[in-house]
Write a structure and sequence with these properties.
The protein has one domain: 3-Layer(aba) Sandwich (Rossmann fold), CATH 3.40.50. Helix content is 37%, strand content 14%. The strands form two sheets. The chain has a six-stranded parallel β-sheet, sandwiched between helices. Helix 4 runs parallel beside helix 9 and helix 9 runs antiparallel to helix 10. It is elongated. The two termini are 18 Å apart. 40% of the residues are buried. The C terminus is likely disordered.
């Protein structure tokens, strides 16, 4: 495997990005430095996210999910942006990044100050009623769930607690957890997150394609592009002649479409890129990247 973090590859990255309007697509790999695990990076433990069919069709699955989410969402809410998120926000302020699509639900790009963000798979901080479509905040639901399950969250030890990228915490005993329904109509409540087996809303997909079409290049960060919800944008960019740049640990489904792949960590590359595009620091940061 070539040294994907080499100075030569970084120079090639600068060539592909400089003078272009860049759309960005991010996945779970960009948030691992914030303490949120991903699904598919090398060495990641096997994870089986709940499907939409399981959630709506099985009250036992739904009870387990809400019990685990009642604990896990707090960990996600406490997560803070890492240098990768801040670097992309800086590139947006510099006029290089024109918009960002994220497969993550953690809101870390927004917390970092990114202005044009499309949350492809929704966000952890909202809850939707499947009957009347009413939206409420996750914090409001937390108060209701706590009232129905006093002391449940506090009874789960946080040391070593594993929380998945969808805010699902590994909690063993969930049988006694009491769920609550929509206050407006009594319908089923579901996190405003696109589950496996569920489609991204069409208006959101259309806005995402427009963002990619308005750019001159697509930068993919921290995503293996295993699922079509992300892969289609890389295919769209490549088909239209826009260079696709992939920064991800491990292979992706779009490597054969890429003008450049960098198999390395996100933060050093993105931080160096953001610094390099500030003219007074080009030499300093290139030297720092070469020493990395």
């Amino acid at each position: 495997m070539p040294d994907s973090g080499s100075p030569q590859r970084f120079e090639r990255l600068l060539e592909l990005v400089s003078g272009r309007r860049v759309a960005v697509l991010t996945g779970a790999g960009i948030s691992t430095d914030s303490g949120i695990p991903d699904y598919r990076s090398p060495g990641a433990p096997p994870r089986t996210p709940m499907t939409y069919q399981q959630f709506v069709g099985d009250p036992v699955f739904r009870q387990r999910y809400w019990a685990r989410n009642h604990v896990g969402w707090r960990r996600m809410d406490a997560a803070r942006p890492n240098p990768s998120h801040h670097a992309l926000a800086r590139l947006e302020r510099a006029g290089i990044v024109t918009g960002l699509l994220t497969q993550n639900v953690d809101l870390l790009h927004t917390k970092a100050g990114q202005r044009r963000v499309i949350d492809l798979h929704g966000v952890y901080a909202r809850v939707r009623c499947l009957s009347c479509q009413a939206l409420t905040s996750r914090m409001t639901l937390a108060d209701r769930l706590e009232a129905a399950n006093p002391g449940f969250a506090e009874s789960v030890p946080l040391d070593g607690l594993e929380v998945a990228p969808d805010a699902d915490a590994v909690v063993a005993d969930t049988a006694s957890f009491r769920m609550v329904d929509c206050l407006t109509c009594g319908g089923l409540l579901k996190p405003d997150i696109v589950y496996f087996g569920e489609s991204v809303p069409k208006p959101r997909v259309a806005a995402s394609f427009e963002l990619v079409d308005d750019a001159d290049a697509l930068l993919v960060v921290g995503s293996s592009l295993t699922v079509m919800s992300g892969l289609r944008f890389a295919r769209r960019a490549a088909k239209s002649g826009r260079p696709v740049i992939i920064l991800n640990r491990g292979r992706t489904r779009a490597d054969d479409l890429a003008a450049l792949t960098l198999d390395t960590g996100c933060a050093p590359v993105l931080s160096a890129l953001a610094d390099a595009l500030a003219p007074d620091r080009i030499v300093h940061r290139r030297e720092a990247f070469a020493q990395h």
